[in-house]
């Protein structure tokens, strides 16, 4: 097994880990989570032997081979599929030995090597590599294209495929879903779920973690703790621990206050001095329980747009694409305030093209783009971080948008995105990818858009920032159109799905699980060989499945509405609880306000109970219908 024993690790003046121990058994799939900068990537470097701990040791079985995904790919002339096949070192070594044996005319050696090649499935390696590339979005024609022909994001996909081809007992993956679309994420998820070895996976995608891992290691303030179960199980257990810790802290503080009052009262009295001294020593001996930190470093919301015209934007018979070949044909749609649209579709079908047309970044080849007067587009895509001024601070970026704004107001705004203190005044150049993405998002929010267009907004964002973005988007009053591989975000902030496929854009009658099934049917085709009447059977089956989804859609929509209502009421309940915990509310001058809050608390509690019951009833009806 992989074992860390009494590890302490410092990077410069920072202590990332302090006297931690961890054991991971063969076959376990472990999600590694924690805020950015806590040491997750350094843990991988320790395991690979690239870093030496300041104290302690790392051990793993001698026969274990380790595979990990490199973060850079050189511009090679080598074909993509050959680059991926190089990940299987045993295969390449066997092929090289075969070539030598053929030159030497060593028949016995040739027989042995061919037997070994058969044992390691070497004859199917090229087809396995091709399937991996296809699953990650590469076309058949691109398999033989040189590595140098691909952009940075696609080279990262090649690195991922090369890593998955490796024969390894231990697989280390650091944010493998960055640069992937939803289709590729679903395929990778299935591959990792079937992987027989030991897996350490750093990811901020909770649905991906839930589907793959059976353990979670949590980094927090120099410690590591291993939790059984997937990420959702971890969230529940961690929340319970924090609640217990907070209760213990509050109980201890009451005891500290009681002892301190005794000390303060009797310290000066000779008859009580000895007792006072004993209590002072008791205070010194008392083990301090730290308060449970909310760990919510990001808090922001979208300001009310200056205008909310309706419709905000329309497309009519639109054609769009690159060069002379349209990717989209005869697309007609309208966007209104309150629309929440998630775009689905295979890689290359035109999702990003549609976003760019809506944003006005790509001119139509035909048809009409009709923006409303007062349309204010907020467009977020990963390439926007490249347009940040590397020499300018986050503060200066904002001041350029609003030169008349008060500096303190700008600093308060940036604090909601994690830029506090000196970090708001330092140059952008050394910021991490996640920090730059946060800054680009802050600049977008500050412009007060009424139409949000977001192309993979969660790439490089950690779980805390994703949570803050989700909450902000839920309250956004304008229209939202997003492409994302983060299924939790899609479920939380969208209420309609559009399918971009074969040049068209149309409503998708179903949920993300239905889309997963649609992808499988599309890629695999009929399960049995096509024969007389088979295409008609497939059409009938698909038509019946579509009709079934259409029948159940109102019930799914009802469940979604109740889920959102429960979330809204829970948030309001927490706000009321915090307000009622304020001691100043119980003064004589606040009686009316206290009564108002208590009355609203009762109303919210009742409404929450009713909403939860309605959600449960609708869910049971859906389960019965599916059955």
UniProtKB/TrEMBL annotation:
GO terms for molecular function: ATP binding; ATP hydrolysis activity; DNA binding. Residues 526-535 have a biased composition (Low complexity). CDD domains: ABCF_EF-3. The keyword Nucleus does not apply. PROSITE patterns: ABC_TRANSPORTER_1, ABC_TRANSPORTER_2. Keywords: ATP-binding, Coiled coil, Nucleotide-binding, Repeat. Residues 552-614 form a coiled coil. InterPro entries: AAA+_ATPase, ABC_tran_C, ABC_tran_Xtn, ABC_transporter-like_ATP-bd, ABC_transporter-like_CS, ABCF, P-loop_NTPase. The keyword Glycoprotein does not apply. Residues 2-246, 313-527 form the ABC transporter domain. It comes from the Bacteria. Residues 536-548 have a biased composition (Basic and acidic residues). Residues 523-548 are annotated as: Disordered. Pfam families: ABC_tran, ABC_tran_CTD, ABC_tran_Xtn. Belongs to the ABC transporter superfamily. ABCF family. YheS subfamily. This is Probable ATP-binding protein YheS.
């Amino acid at each position: 097994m992989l074992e860390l024993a009494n590890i302490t690790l410092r990077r410069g003046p920072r202590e990332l880990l302090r006297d931690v121990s961890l054991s991971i058994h063969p076959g376990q799939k472990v999600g590694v989570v924690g805020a950015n900068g806590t040491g997750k990537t350094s843990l991988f470097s320790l395991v690979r032997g690239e870093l030496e701990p300041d104290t302690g040791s790392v051990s793993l079985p001698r026969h274990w081979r380790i595979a990990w995904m490199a973060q850079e790919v050189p511009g090679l002339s080598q074909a993509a599929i050959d680059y991926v096949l190089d990940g299987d070192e045993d295969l390449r070594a066997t092929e090289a030995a075969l070539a030598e044996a053929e030159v030497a005319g060593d028949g016995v050696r040739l027989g042995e090597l061919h037997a070994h090649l058969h044992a390691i499935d070497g004859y199917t390696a090229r087809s396995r590599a091709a399937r991996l590339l296809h699953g990650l979005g590469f076309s058949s024609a691109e398999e033989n294209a040189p590595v140098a022909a691909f952009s940075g994001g696609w080279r990262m996909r090649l690195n991922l495929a090369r890593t998955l081809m490796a024969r390894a007992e231990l697989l280390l993956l650091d944010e493998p879903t960055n640069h992937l679309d939803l289709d590729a994420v679903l395929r990778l998820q299935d591959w990792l779920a079937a992987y027989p070895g030991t897996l350490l996976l750093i990811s901020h995608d909770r649905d991906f973690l839930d589907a793959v891992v059976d353990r979670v290691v949590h980094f927090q303030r120099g410690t590591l703790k291993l939790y059984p179960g997937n990420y959702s199980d971890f969230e529940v257990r961690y929340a319970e621990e924090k609640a217990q810790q907070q209760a213990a802290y509050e109980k201890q503080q009451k005891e500290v206050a009681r002892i301190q009052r005794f000390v303060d009262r009797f310290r000066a009295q000779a008859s009580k001095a000895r007792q006072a001294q004993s209590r002072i020593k008791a205070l010194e001996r008392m083990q301090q329980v730290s308060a449970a930190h909310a760990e919510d470093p990001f808090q922001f919301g979208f300001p009310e747009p200056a205008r909310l015209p309706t419709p905000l934007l329309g497309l009519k018979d639109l054609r769009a694409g690159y060069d002379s070949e349209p990717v989209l044909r005869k697309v007609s749609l309208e966007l209104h305030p309150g629309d929440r649209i998630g775009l689905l579709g295979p890689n290359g079908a035109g999702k990003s093209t549609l976003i760019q047309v809506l944003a006005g970044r790509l001119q139509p080849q035909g048809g009409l783009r009709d923006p409303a007067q007062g349309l204010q587009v907020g467009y977020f895509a990963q390439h926007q971080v490249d347009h940040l001024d590397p020499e300018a601070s986050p503060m200066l970026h904002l001041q350029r948008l609003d030169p008349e704004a008060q500096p303190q107001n700008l600093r308060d705004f940036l604090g909601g995105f994690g830029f506090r203190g000196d970090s708001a005044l330092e140059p952008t150049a050394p910021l991490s990818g996640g920090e730059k993405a946060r800054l680009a998002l802050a600049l977008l929010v500050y412009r007060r858009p009424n139409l949000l267009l977001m192309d993979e907004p969660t790439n490089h964002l950690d779980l805390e920032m994703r949570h803050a973005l989700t909450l902000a988007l839920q309250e956004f009053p304008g229209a939202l159109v997003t492409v994302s591989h983060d299924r939790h975000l899609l479920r939380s902030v969208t209420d309609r799905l559009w399918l971009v496929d074969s040049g068209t854009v149309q409503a998708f009658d179903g949920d993300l699980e239905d889309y997963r099934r649609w992808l499988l049917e599309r890629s695999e085709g009929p399960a049995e060989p096509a024969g007389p009447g088979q295409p008609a059977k497939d059409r009938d089956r698909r038509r019946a499945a579509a009709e079934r989804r259409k029948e159940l859609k109102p019930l799914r929509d009802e469940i979604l509405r109740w889920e959102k209502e429960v979330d809204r009421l829970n948030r309001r309940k927490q706000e009321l609880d915090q307000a009622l915990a304020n001691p100043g509310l119980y003064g004589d001058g606040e009686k009316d306000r206290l009564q108002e809050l208590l009355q609203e608390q009762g109303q919210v509690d009742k409404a929450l109970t009713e909403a939860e019951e309605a959600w449960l009833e609708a869910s049971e009806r859906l389960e019965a219908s599916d059955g």
